[in-house]
Design brief:
about 550 residues; 32 strands; 8-stranded antiparallel sheet; globular; Beta-galactosidase, Chain A, domain 5; Immunoglobulin-like
């Protein structure tokens, strides 16, 4: 006899439908402690990228006593359903006499945070004329800050009670942890105005940051004017901002090489034609997650080239901070940044097998690392001793006309050995994410229905399935990764899975289901064994 269809909540009360949609496995991190050696440091989006759109120098802090250890903790986010509530009085017969109840809307929502508990407090501090917004980790031991007047770029990452522990440059509007974008057709002033830089390179002005072409920069422009923050939304556990970056060179589209936009009191505040969304949160006691989405506000597509999404500018020995000039790959090999570039700078392209790199002090006992979720191993470093040190992934993509691009990156704090352990833990724990395209919410079906959507992971997807109902009454149908999704790979570039098929589909049978409402979940498992519900919806059986 077919099972009686009752509400999800009611079944939970009877103990036959106690679904706990799985997050990452509950395992210990690579080490119980991540040690910061003693040293002298001196004096949005939901899973598919949607974000909530809610309508100088580092400031001085009192320097507290340095601590000897950064203690890590396994903070895998639980993806459980809300606790059941007794709603038995609300269960009523339908026209056929069956006991059916709606699946509550609250069952359809779930956190898009991949890792971390997200419980850190928020603090806004006025520092030397700037409003710096701080987010603390759960233990209040480490904090991170974004600067409101500099496009919400990141200006602090370090110990909460020690201003000298900051690992970020934060010297001017061009040197934080921030994003910046380029277009090869409009790369330099002189040829940018008519998008001819690839076909008529002789028109380009000299190779200098003074003459950069189309180049929106999160922090601000070369006039040291900060980009405008349209909104900042904060809750316990995360900070989210929407920014209109300025063009680095305000007169980038001038025909010739004359003029100076910084002397024009109107032009020097010129906003770019992109909008940038950023969410910052802790994924672990020593790891900060940045989720980034850039929108193209025009009908002109930005062609693919290396983008800064983001670049990490580390402390260079000024303002009482350490000089984090030792650039190391994931094996600990030091990278010699020795190829001459423009304006007296040097650069170096290098490979890092673990998909992360770090900038450390001379003793390798303190520094900052960066890991990109798409797991690119090609990196680039820029350096000018005593001026700045930076690293970034060689992340190439375009921005579709009136489209957007989303990515996540992670900053890691500590010694080389600490960051090496943290990166290995992060690399193995990141679960899949994705989106359900069909069926539509509350769509009605009989007999069977089609499911399709997409899924991505930092390494690979081992299986994906559709689950209807929960507990003992749940049915699971395997789905196939069988569809090319160039639209997804343009919006989430750089993932190795995009060399194959990231779209899933399948047919789900309803033969054993009475005409009621049911919870539909899409469950993905990656090649590291991390299982996660990547989407939820509600269907109605006719």
């Amino acid at each position: 006899m077919k099972e009686l269809c009752i509400s999800i909540l009611f079944v939970l009360l009877l103990g036959s439908c106690s679904s706990a949609p799985a997050g990452a496995p509950d395992e210990e991190p690579v080490a119980d402690e991540f040690v910061l050696a003693d040293k002298d440091m001196g004096g949005l989006p939901d899973a598919d990228g949607a974000l909530v759109d809610d309508d100088g120098e580092q400031g001085e802090h009192d320097t507290g006593d340095e601590k000897d250890a950064l203690v890590g903790e396994d903070e895998i986010l639980s993806d459980d359903l809300p606790e059941a509530t007794d709603l038995s009085d609300a269960i009523i017969p339908d026209d056929d006499g069956l006991l059916c109840q709606e699946v509550p809307d609250e069952y359809l929502s779930f956190s898009d945070h991949l890792l971390g508990s997200g419980q850190g407090k928020i603090e806004v501090v006025f520092n030397n004329g700037f409003n710096d917004h701080y987010l603390y980790g759960d233990s209040n031991y480490i904090k991170v800050a974004i600067r409101e007047e500099w496009g919400a770029s990141m200006v602090f990452f370090g110990l909460a009670d020690n201003a000298g522990s900051n690992v970020i440059d934060a010297n001017d509007t061009g040197r934080e942890v921030q994003v910046a974008f380029y277009d090869p057709a409009r790369s330099m002033q002189g040829c940018a105005y008519n998008s001819s830089c690839q076909t008529s390179p002789e028109l380009a002005c000299p190779n200098s940051i003074r003459y950069l072409g189309w180049n929106p920069v999160q922090g601000g422009n070369r006039c040291n004017i900060g980009s405008s923050v349209e909104s900042i939304y904060e809750e316990v556990g995360f900070m989210q901002a929407t920014v209109r970056p300025l063009f680095w060179n305000p007169d980038w589209d001038q025909v010739g090489c004359g003029g100076d936009g910084c002397t024009d009191n109107i032009l020097k505040y010129r906003q770019s034609d992109v909008r940038y969304h950023q969410r910052v949160r802790f994924a672990h006691s020593n790891i900060v997650e940045m989720q980034m989405t850039v929108e193209n506000l025009t009908a002109t597509a930005v062609q693919a080239t290396l983008q800064e999404f983001p670049t990490l500018y580390a402390a260079y020995g000024a303002h009482g901070l350490a000089n984090l000039h030792n650039i190391l790959d994931s094996n600990g090999t030091q990278i010699a940044v020795d190829i001459p570039a423009n304006d007296g700078f040097f650069y170096k392209n290098f490979e890092t097998p673990g998909a992360w790199a770090t900038l450390q002090n001379d003793e390798r006992t303190y520094g900052v690392g960066i890991y990109y979720e798409n797991r690119l191993t090609a990196y680039q470093a820029w350096q000018k001793e005593g001026v700045f040190n930076n690293i970034r992934s060689r992340f190439s993509f375009g921005i579709p006309a009136n489209g957007s691009v989303t990515a996540r990156a992670y900053l890691l704090l500590g010694s080389f050995e600490t960051i090496q352990g943290l990166a290995a833990w992060l690399d193995s724990k990141l679960p899949p994410f994705g989106h359900l395209d069909a069926p539509a919410l509350d769509s009605a079906h009989s007999g069977s229905f089609m499911v399709n959507g997409w899924v991505l992971d930092n390494k690979g997807v081992a299986s994906i399935a559709a689950r209807i109902g929960s507990g003992g009454g749940a049915s699971v149908t395997a789905l196939s990764l069988d569809t090319d999704r160039p639209d997804v790979c343009a919006a989430y570039p750089g993932y190795s899975l995009c060399d194959g098929k990231v779209g899933f589909s399948g047919t789900v049978s309803l033969d054993d289901r009475y005409p009621c409402s049911y919870l539909l979940e899409i469950v993905a498992t990656d090649t590291d064994g991390n299982e996660r519900v990547i989407a939820r919806s509600r269907i109605r059986v006719q």
